[in-house]
């Protein structure tokens, strides 16, 4: 067994959804020499034309309450005074209106908050719940109308503000409150960001902090002391003096059965490589709702199919021989943690085993770009062929903003809103699991991408900063990548046969695409988030799921809820659902939504009136109100979903973009279920709403821990059933798939087949295919005598150096 996975010498590092405490301790202790600058990919043999981008920064969100009687009026005055300088006007500097906060800005906000003595702030690291601490700082985007006036009409640059989440645990009535802090970069005011009426985030809805995980870890170790011998005898692992044979845990959510509760089921696992797949058979329910950890108690214990009232009861019955015990085999048969190449690797390990019938031992093909990248990166903006867009990493996930093609805006925002995984199981933790990942910091777990594996060697890698559950901005190297690659099929091609053994011409366009990629590693699972830009004005979003499955202890009854993946392991059935917000602006902000369908007509054949003619016709449907344009999963979604402008193309058709969804999602939770309120967006593969500043996000960091009464309820966006014709429209898209684990999910879920997403495709938007502007086209003409004539617009390539840069991977993230 190697030790690389062992976290920082902790005797019992908390696991998965749970592991934050030790992980937090690791922050600031880089394990090697850091590469902390953003790195531009490309061929080392060729000078790179582009400038490297400064780090992308980011951070958090929230909502809160402290009954602070602050100088709100003074705040507003300052805000007005801060109405900023005139913009310098270049696309790059203008796009900084969307930029994540820099380290300097994050620190300025932190210092400003700490200077407000009335907040009585303490370090987020202070080992207590009863404290006031800053949980999250991130960009608070200005209102869309302000930004558009700035971008399009040369009006004033909007004030730059931060969104701050403060946990007020030291108050008589602990609460969570969100603030806007500005103006940046030198904050002078803060004002509370009021929740929607009746939707204040409850104290118990706050995400679990790394300190709470430390306290939970301690509480679990204390509570399970009576089980020390039991653990040793049944697993060979324990919580005490365990050296390399320690237990860890995965906690699941929701944390209880009703609003106001905070009691979590914990799956105990052996802390080995890929510990998510090593449950011990023991699960515990711990109430940690009190701010006083002395009040925390284990309420129930489940072991191998039976419930016990306490660890003591299980220990007692075990001693009396009344427990149906499963003794786990030793996962470390010989070396006991020492590296021993002769030991077979754990089934949960990535180490190669087995053989192909035709072994492949060399390096595979790879991407090269001998002439350097075709895109330009300017700060948080990418310019590529006809495309330009900006991007940022919000705490909820990646957002692309101000997406333009040919100088025309197509979408103001396309962004990840949420990713959930809804499970079934026979064990209490398995049946309780409904992960709502924004509550686990979905946009903040953007760990390092490996060149040549996660992104091509030619990619440009960008760093990120997150201020989430920390006292300092944390620097995440190579958190995003941008790269260009050839399409797997030609964008267009035609062989024009002369039907006499030859051709009139051949023409083809290889087609390149630009990809913006990041990942979210939410404990066991990894999501790979792609935004893909094609030269013909098509944009695609795609998410792949990979990483370890969420798994529980095998019992025969568990087979109703999943697949046996190993001796003591069930991979539980679950559904992945991801939600996106697509704020389309198709030839302006005034759009309508309509669908086209095929409808069969049955008429008399006009040229043979004794016959019938059955043929497809076009049927257009207009949608006037939000309710009408909210499509339930139980109904068939029309195939042509069009966002149209009143402006027309040369042939009299409305200029439009088509939304094309690639998904295998289905509705999982019935709307009658109380906790379904947290994910009401998951009722609709598509809902179209009128733009509202109060409806920018369909979920929140609080929905996970109070799904019964969450502060953000998507369904309420539809309640006023607004008029949606000739308005600024937003499409909300749910994609996903059912995942029934199978043996090939060991060691990890693989990406092929596990991707879903959608495309935005021009539909009568351009006068012709805009990829005609590409100079990549090749046309071949036959000649009567002599070789064929090859017509091209880019000279043929010369030979060049193809070696990529040596592989490097640092893997650390640390405060700056
Ligand atoms: Cu899955």
TrEMBL record:
Its EC number is 1.4.3.-. Its main location: membrane. The active site is at 437 (proton acceptor), 525 (schiff-base intermediate with substrate). It is found in: Cell membrane; Secreted, Extracellular space. It is an enzyme of class 1 (oxidoreductase). GO terms for molecular function: calcium ion binding; copper ion binding; heparin binding; histamine oxidase activity; primary methylamine oxidase activity; protein homodimerization activity; putrescine oxidase activity; quinone binding. This is Amine oxidase. The gene is AOC1.
